């Protein structure tokens, strides 16, 4: 088995009130990303603190943090989350100016899922549907293909994977794709669980769907602690990669992202798996070359 790609999602819905180490401002994201790359992360993912702004303003906010990272680490692999426009309208159009700035990784979330909290009675609540229609998915893939971005594919539930595989089987999946298999604890992303739990049988179910497919895949625990979960070791034993970070972390500690990366590196070393550099990760994924 080849080197392990460690991806760190440094922020998201996690607030500083719940963990003071979460980076929010561009300067904080810059410092955090550089520390994580030095510790062994090959890919960095982050959100921005602006919603409802234009595509161009969102791209510029990402680049405020990323330009200093790329100046220090030209090999860095960085990518954003989706763009939330007015009324939380979802789009991927911000990937166009981001790619023009020299980035190599994009994203597509190939499906839809209910995300919300839990009431005092234990029932899920909220009216937010994270919605990516087949048309939206196709548009995201078109952008990645045209902009020469390798799409990072978030797999919240098995249906997401089946959609991604439909594009793959048709030969229409953009070059450089990577699957992130999200296993959710009872805490989920916003409080309510979704998808499959972090168990060996759940991993087997995903790997059955992936039978015959050579796309690189990673595991992530949403609402938990990846390296404290058996799913991390199981994935490493089966040729998988690791996706972690404070975006999804929930545990009895308040770690920094670099601590989570260091723990993942130690786990890889214990199991005899080499940790990929950003350049090795780009090769493993088959990312398109940067335009001259």
Automatic annotation (TrEMBL):
<dbReference type="InterPro" id="IPR013785">
    <property type="entry name" value="Aldolase_TIM"/>
</dbReference>
<protein>
    <recommendedName>
        <fullName>3-keto-5-aminohexanoate cleavage protein</fullName>
    </recommendedName>
</protein>
<dbReference type="Pfam" id="PF05853">
    <property type="entry name" value="BKACE"/>
</dbReference>
<dbReference type="InterPro" id="IPR008567">
    <property type="entry name" value="BKACE"/>
</dbReference>
<dbReference type="GO" id="GO:0043720">
    <property type="term" value="F:3-keto-5-aminohexanoate cleavage activity"/>
</dbReference>
<keyword id="KW-0808">Transferase</keyword>
<keyword id="KW-0479">Metal-binding</keyword>
<keyword id="KW-0862">Zinc</keyword>
<dbReference type="GO" id="GO:0046872">
    <property type="term" value="F:metal ion binding"/>
</dbReference>
């Amino acid at each position: 088995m080849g080197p392990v790609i460690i991806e760190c999602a440094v922020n998201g819905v996690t607030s500083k009130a719940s963990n003071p180490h979460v980076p929010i401002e561009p300067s904080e994201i810059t410092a955090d990303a550089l520390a994580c790359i030095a510790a062994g992360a090959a890919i960095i993912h982050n959100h921005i603190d602006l919603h409802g702004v234009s595509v161009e303003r969102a791209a510029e906010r990402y680049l405020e943090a990323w330009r200093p990272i790329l100046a220090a680490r030209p090999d860095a692999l960085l990518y954003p989350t989706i763009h939330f426009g007015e009324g939380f309208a979802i789009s991927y159009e911000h990937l166009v100016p981001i790619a023009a700035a020299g980035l190599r990784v994009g994203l597509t979330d190939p499906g839809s899922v209910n995300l919300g909290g839990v009431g005092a009675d234990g029932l899920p609540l909220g009216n937010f549907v994270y919605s990516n229609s087949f048309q939206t998915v196709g548009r995201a893939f078109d952008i990645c293909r045209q902009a020469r971005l390798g799409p990072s594919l978030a797999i919240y539930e098995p249906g997401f994977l089946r959609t991604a595989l439909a594009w793959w089987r048709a030969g229409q999946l953009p070059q450089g794709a990577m699957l992130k298999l999200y296993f959710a604890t009872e805490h989920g992303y916003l409080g309510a669980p979704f998808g499959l739990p972090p168990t060996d049988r759940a991993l087997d179910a995903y790997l059955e769907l992936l039978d015959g497919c050579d796309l690189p895949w990673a595991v992530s625990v949403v609402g938990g602690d990846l390296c404290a979960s058996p799913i991390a070791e199981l994935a490493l034993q089966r040729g998988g990669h690791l996706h972690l970070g404070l975006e999804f972390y929930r545990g009895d500690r308040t770690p920094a992202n670099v601590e989570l990366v260091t723990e993942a590196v130690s786990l890889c070393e214990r199991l005899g798996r080499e940790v990929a550099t950003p350049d090795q990760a780009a090769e493993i994924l088959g990312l398109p070359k940067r335009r001259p």
